[in-house]
Amino acid sequence: MPREEIWTEKYRPKKLDEVAGQSHIISNIKSYVRKKNLPHLIFSGPAGVGKTAAAVAMTHELFGDTWAENFTELNASDERGIEVVRNKIKNFARTMPTGDSAFKIIFLDEADALTDAAQSALRRTMERYSSTCRFVLSCNFSSKIIDPIQSRCSVYRFKSLSYDALKARILYIADKEGLTLSEDTVHALNYISMGDMRRAINALQSAAVLSKEIKPGMIYEITATARPEEIEALIKEALTGNFFAALAMLDEMMEKGISGDEILAQMHRRVINMDISARQKVELMDRIGEADYRITEGANERIQLDALIASLCLASDERVK
Ligand SMILES: Nc1ncnc2c1ncn2[C@@H]1O[C@H](COP(=O)(O)OP(=O)(O)OP(=O)(O)O)[C@@H](O)[C@H]1O
Ligand SMILES: [Mg+2]
Question: Ligand 1 atom closest to Cα of 10?
Answer without folding.
Answer: 31
